[in-house]
Batch of 3 targets.
Target 1
Amino acid sequence: MVSMETLVSLCKRRGFVFQSSEIYGGIGSSWDYGPLGVELRNKIKRVWWRDFVQRRPDMLGLDASILMHPTVWKASGHVDNFTDPMVDCRECRHRFRVDQLAETPWVHYCPATKGNKFTIPAGEACSHCGAVRTLCPDCGKGELTPPRQFNLMFKTLMGPVEEDAAVTYLRPETAQGIFVNFDNVLQSMRRKLPFGIGQIGKAFRNEITPGNFIFRTREFEQMEIEYFVNPNETVEGRPADEYWHDRWIEDCLAWFRRYGIESDNLRLHEHARDELAHYAKRTADVQYRFPIGWSELMGIANRTDFDLKQHAKFSGKALTYFDDERKEHVVPYVIEPSAGVDRALLAFLADAYREEEVRGEKRVVLRFHPELAPVSVAVLPLLKKRDDIVRTAHAIRDELSRDLTAVYDDTAAIGRLYRRQDEVGTPYCVTVDVQTVGDTDKGEPADGKVTIRDRDSMEQIRVEATRLGQVIGDLLGGTPWAEVAGRS
Ligand code: GAP
C-alpha cells in the first residue's frame, strides 16, 4: 500500500491537491483541489449522481442550502448531541479528543535517561522507566484539563447588524436539508414509497483532531441519500427498512468495486450498540484500507423515523405519507447511505497507485477507472517542429474536448510525455506523427491515422483520425482494449 506521504507529494507535484492558503503558511486541515483534483472530484460526483440518482426510477435529486433555520439543528439533535469530549494542554494549549488519546504517540522526557526526549508509540509505556502517558502527548510537559464537551458545529451570524444577527450554523451534514424538504418533494413529485432523495454538497465540522490529508477535514463534501420506506410493509418476508438497508449496503459496495476499488481493500464494519448514533437502529460502515489503516469510507444507517418525527414536532407540520392500501398516514423510515467525496477521492487515488518496472525503469501509474481519470485523453505531437503535426494535434484535441477532458502537451520527448500521463492516470494517449500528415518533401502521402496508446498494457494501435472520437468513446464506455485493437 502506498504511503500517505507519497500520495501527498504526488498530489502537490501533479496538481491534484494543494494546501489551502499555502503562501500564508497554510490553514489547518483545509485543502484546495488543483486542476487535476477538481476533474477527479467532479467525475466521482458525476458518476455517483448518474448511477444513484439519474438512472434509478426510485430516486430524485435536491440541492438544499448550507445555512438553515437554527431550529433544524435543535430538532435534529445536533445542538445537544453533536459533541466530542475534549481536553486541553495547559502548557501548549493543544486540544485532543479524549477517545483518541490512547491512539496518539506521546512525547516523554525520561527521568531514567537524564531527561532525554522520546516519542513513544500510542498506548505503550516507556521502555526505559516504565512510565505511561499522563501529560500532554504533544509537548510531554503540560497537564491536561478535565474533559469538556465540545460541539462540532461551526456557529455563524446571519444578518447585517452583528448585535441583532441570529446565530445559526454551517450544516454539519447535508441530510437535514433533505428531511426538511421531504413534504415539498413528496407533494411536487407525487412519489410512492419507497423512494429516495440524493444530494451532493458541502458540510462543515469543527473537528478537534482533523488530519491525515483529506481524510478528516473541517470543510468537506458529502454525497448523501435518504431513502424513505414504509415501515409497515414487508419485502421478501422481511420488514421493508431491514430489506432496503441490506440492499443499499450491497449497492454501495458494488459501486466502489465497479469503479476499480479492489475487493480486498473494502470491508464492512457493523456498529456495536454503544457506537450507534442517537438516531440509528443499525449502521454499517464501508471501510477502506487507507494508507492510515482500515477506516470509514462511508456509512449506511437506518435512521428510522427519528428525523421526520423530530422535524414534525419542532415545526408543527405533519411529515407523513398516506398509504393508499392501508388507508393510513405513516411516518416513513429512512435508510441513509452517506459517503464523503474527499474520502472517496482518497480511496480511488490510493487504490489506483502503482509503481511498476518497465524495461528496467520505474514508472508510477495511477490506474484510475477510465470514467474517473482526470484527463481522459492526451494528444501528443511526435515532432513539435512540424507545424502540420502540431496543427493536426491541436485540432484533434479541440474536437475530442467537446465531450471529454482532453489535453495537448508538447513540452517533452514522447517517452517523457507518456510517463507524465501515466503518473496522472490518463487512460489513453493519442500521438500524431509524420505518417498522419505525410511528408511532401519525401513524397510520402498522409495516411490520416493516429496512434492510441493504452495506459495499462502500454500497447499501441493505429486508427483513422476520423474514427478517433468513436474509438475513444467505446474505450471509455467499457469496450475492452483487446476488442478495439482487434477491430483496428
Ligand atoms: N448524515 C450522516 C453523516 O453525516 P457521518 O458518518 O458523520 O454520517 C458520513 O458522515 C461520511 O461523510 C463519512 O463516512 C465520511 O466519508 C464523510 N465525512 C464525515 N466527516 C468528515 C470529515 N471531517 N472530513 C472528511 N469527510 C468526512
Target 2
Amino acid sequence: MKNGIYIVATPIGNLKDISSRAVETLEQADVIACEDTRVTKKLLSLLNINLKKTFISLHDHNEDEQLLKVIELVKEGKSVAQVSDAGCPLISDPGYKLIRHCKEEGIYYCTIPGPCALICALQLSGLPTNSFMFSGFVPNKDKARFDAFNKVKNIDTTLIFYETANRIVKTLHVVAEVFGSREISVAREITKIYEECVNGTAEELISHFTENEPKGEMVLMIAPPIEQETSLKEVEQALQQELAKSSLKTAVKTIVATYGLNKNDVYSLALRLKEK
Ligand code: SAM
C-alpha cells in the first residue's frame, strides 16, 4: 500500500455499511489516525481487523500538533488511514487541516467514500435535493443560533444542520421564530433500528417531540424559502392582484394563508411591490 493518507468513511449506525475498500484499507494501513482510539478499536474488532498497528489520536483539540506527527510517519513511508468516530471524516469532524498540509507538501492522499449523515438525511427528507447548503452544527448559544438562522433564511436552497437530541426542541422554537411555516424535516437514528424522518412546520415538530421524547443523533433540514412548485413569480403575481383590490395588511394576510409563507417575508415582498 502506497504511503500517504487514506480518508476512510465508516458506518453511522449499521456496521454492514462499511465498504470493502474501507475494510481493505483499514486492514493494510500501518497507522490509524482516529478521534477516539477506543471507538475505532471497537469498530476494527467488530470487522475482525488485526489491531496490531499504530493508533494515533487526532481530534479537534490536538489536530495542530498531531497532524505533524502523522505527516512525519507518511514521510517515513507509512500508510495512514484517517477515520472519525462515525461517518465521513472532515465533515463536522477533524482532518481538513491535515489534508491541507498534504496538499501543500505534495503528499499523496485519497478518499475511501462511505456513509455521510447529511447526505443520508437529505435523501430521507423529501425536500429539494437539487441545491442544498450544509452549515455544520446549530450553534449552542441563543443569540448565535438566532443569528445563524437569520443569516441563511433567504437563501434559495435546502438548509442542513447537525443537531443533538437534547437541544432539538429549543432549536425548533428558534426555527419557528425565524422560518415561520416553512417545511422542516428532522431525520434521526439514520441506518439504525429506529430510523425516522419527520416533516412538518417547526410548531408541528415541537408537538411531535413533546409527545415523543427526542432520542439519538439527528439532522435538521429546512426547505427553501418557497417550495419548488410555487415559484416566487407566482406569489408575486398573486400578491400584486391582492394589493390591487385590498389593503396591504389584508393582501399579506391572504397570501400568507394561501401559500403558507412566513408573514414577515410576504410583508417585505408587498412593500417592495408597492415601491415599484
Ligand atoms: N462526520 C460525520 C458525518 O458527516 O457523517 C458526522 C459527525 S458529527 C460529529 C455527528 C453528528 O452527525 C450528529 O450530532 C448528528 O447530527 C449527525 N449524525 C451522525 N450519525 C447520525 C445518524 N445515524 N442519524 C442522524 N444523524 C447522525
Target 3
Amino acid sequence: MSASAHTLFISDLHLTADRPDISQQFLSFIQDSAPRAEALYILGDLFEIWLGDDAMTPTHGIILNAIKSISDRGISVYFMRGNRDFLIGDEFAKACGCEILNDPSVINLYGTPTLLTHGDLLCTDDTDYQAFRAYIRDPKTIKQLMALSIEERIAKGREYRAGSQAANKEKPMDIMDVNQDAVLAMLREHNVEHMIMGHTHRPNEHSFELEGKPAHRIVLGDWHEQGSQVYADASGCELQELVRRV
Ligand code: MN
C-alpha cells in the first residue's frame, strides 16, 4: 500500500520523564508514521515543561535526535510553541532540524488555506490566563527568565503551575475552552475558513458558518491515554486516534 502525499499534525504530548510510555509512543510515531509524510507539524506542548534550550537533558536529546532523523530524510518539520514549552528557542530548532512557526500561522494545505494555532490565544473567557499569558510571553519576561539559573527557573515553573492549578479548580470547565467569537475573529482576520489547533485536550471537529461559508475547526487530542493526529491530504483532513501498543 502506498500512501499518497500527506501531512501530519500533532500537539499536546506533554512529554516528561514521568511518562516513558508517551515518549515511547512518540518515538515509534517518529520511526514508523512520520517518515511516510511529507511534512510534520507539532502544534505546541510537545513537552510538559521546557526550561530553556540551555537546560536540555539526555532524555530530551533522544527526542530531538529522533525528530532530526526524519528532518534529515527530507521531511519538513515545523514547531509552534505551546504554553508549556514557550521557552523553546533556536538551539532546539537547530538540534531537531525544524522551523519554528509563529502562533497563529496560515499554511497552504493542499490548496486549502489553513490557520494553525496552539489554541490558548482563543480561550479569551479566561481573562486571568490571558493576562498571565501576555506577561509570560513578553520578550522582556522571557529575557528575565532566561537570565535565571536553571534551578531558579524550575522554582518559577513550580510556582506558576501551582498558581494556575489552584485557579483552574475554581473555574467552570467552559471558561477553559475556546470562545467561539475569538475563533471567528481569528479566522476573519486571516481570511481563512479552516483551523487546526490543540491545547484544550478536547479532540473534535467543529463545523460552523463564517460569512455564509462553511468553516471548520479541528482540535487535536492530547497523548495522555492514547495518541492523536490530524492526517491531511488532497482530499481533506481527518482527526485520528493513535492506539498505544506499549
Ligand atoms: Mn497548551
